[in-house]
Amino acid sequence: MIELLAPAGDLQKLKVAIDYGADACYIGGELFGLRTASASFTIDNIKEALEYAHSRGKKVYLVLNIIPHNEDIEQLKQYLEEIKGLPIDGFIVSDPGTLKLIRESLGYVEIHLSTQANTTSAASAAFWADQGVKRIILARELNLEEISHIVKTVPELDFEVFVHGAMCMSYSGRCLISSFLTGRDANRGDCAQSCRWRYHLVEEKRPGEYFPIEETEQGTAIMSSKDLAALPILDQVIQTGVKSLKLEGRNKSIFYVASIVRIYREAIDRIERGEYHYEDLYDEMLKVSHRDYSTGFFMGHPDQAQNYGDKGYIRDYQFVGRVLDYDDTTGRALIEQRNHFKLGDEMEAFGPDYRLVRFQVNDIMSTQGQAQESAPHPMQQLWLTMPKVEPGDLIRRPSSN
Fold first, then answer.
1. Which of the 8 DSSP states describes residue 400?
2. Is there a shared CATH topology between the 3-167+225-294 domain and the 317-398 domain?
3. 345-379 burial code (b ≥16 CB/10 A, e <16)
4. Tag placement on the chain: N or C end, fewer CB within 10 Å?
5. pLDDT tens-digit profile of 373-392?
6. What is the C-alpha R_g of the chain?
7. How many Å separate Cα 290 from the centre of its chain?
8. DSSP string of 77-138?
9. Where are the chain's structural domains?
10. How far apart are CA 18 and CA 215, in angstroms?
């Protein structure tokens, strides 16, 4: 069985990912993960996450993949003592020193080697196997043939690859641009995403005069990559023998997590049934906020992996609410509203198991029974008449509404 591994930036996102079909989630604590500034779990959160996942037969992996400096080591030792005894299913690390400290503090636990370690050959994989690593998250710069060779050459290891999400233009995510420009160290969990900024040219003798660097009429984004989407070749990725397919996005919303997990869950299920077709899934994928997509390095050198035009997100659909309850007697759903919508808007509600219902907003009623023409206030609870939905389903609308 192939594992679908989802990102979880907080406890709610973890629950959504599992409910929508993830086999496992990777999370970061408040320290030592590469998204600690904006996506982290307290010790109590980790305990609740483990209980929620394990009660449903799912797994949770903890990310400890920063590249630590001397000043980080004592704090890392203290953190390992705090999480000692928690039934975490695996630890994602990139640094040999961190691996050594985990072994000294926690004993034999399952270690997954981060993509930050840049494993690109069977020889490197075999070395890490000798260090007691159980799984390697391969570098994103490998093509399908290289991945297949590594998997076959080092059968004692499990292998994992990223199949969807944001791509970094630096080598396997090891980037210094943010540190140089802002003092925020991407390799210690504080990337400013400087590669996504707009840049201008300044001539030495003309300070204050900013000349645009233009490759097209939309400008340039030579350091900004397209998003990875392996969906069109997912069957070929699985044929390499990897054990886990990883989705990127611990900073993403519950709308993103639910949408992408359900798409790849359905794709994997179709492949396992021997009836893979992805065109409708790809259309669904376009409804999630994204940059232009590419298949990354899987098919060889990614000649079309950079966003030479507009580097911004494409948002054709907007997340408008989450279903809290459904009243079969009245045919109304109680929703928690997230973005503005109004009477007459065309909507779609979706849930796990690839369910989808379409409807038009014909009435909006507050929980106090007052009719409304629109829903302008985020997080307001409202009743909407709609076809049968389930608690936990999400609602979206075209941005053109």
1. T
2. no
3. bebbbbbbebeeeebebeebbeeeeeebeebeeee
4. N
5. 999 888 999 999 999 999 99
6. 23
7. 12
8. HHHHHHHTT---SEEEE--HHHHHHHHHHH-S--EEE-GGG---SHHHHHHHHHTT--EEE-
9. 3-167+225-294, 317-398
10. 43
**Backbone φ, ψ for residue 112 (5° rounding):** -110, 130
End-to-end CA distance of the chain: 41
Q: List pLDDT tens digits, range 121-173.
A: 999 999 999 999 999 999 988 999 999 999 999 999 999 999 999 877 665 56
Estimate to the nearest angstrom the gap between the alpha carbon of 330 and the chain centroid: 37
Tokens of 18: 């599992």
Homologous superfamily assigned to 3-167+225-294: Aldolase class I (3.20.20.70)
d(CA 237, CA 247): 14
Residues, the chain: 401
Per-residue tokens: 161: 């690859």
pLDDT at 187: 61
Does pTM top 0.85 for this prediction? yes
Cβ(151)–Cβ(208) under 8 Å?
A: no
Q: Mark the ranges of the chain whose per-residue pLDDT is less than 50.
A: 308
Question: What distance in Å separates the CA atoms of residue 223 and residue 290, rounded to the nearest whole number?
Answer: 17
Pair 276, 270: CB distance under 8 Å: yes
pLDDT at 223: 65
Listed in sequence order, the residues at least 6 apart from 128 whose beta carbon sits closer than 8 Å to its beta carbon are: 113, 117, 119, 136, 157
Q: How far apart are CA 62 and CA 29, in angstroms?
A: 7
Tell me which residue has tokens 């990875």.
228
- pLDDT in the model for residue 400: 77
CATH number among 2.40.30.10, 2.170.190.11, 3.10.129.10, 1.10.220.10, domain 317-398? 2.40.30.10
d(CA 129, CA 142): 19
Q: Assign 172 to helix, strand or coil.
A: coil
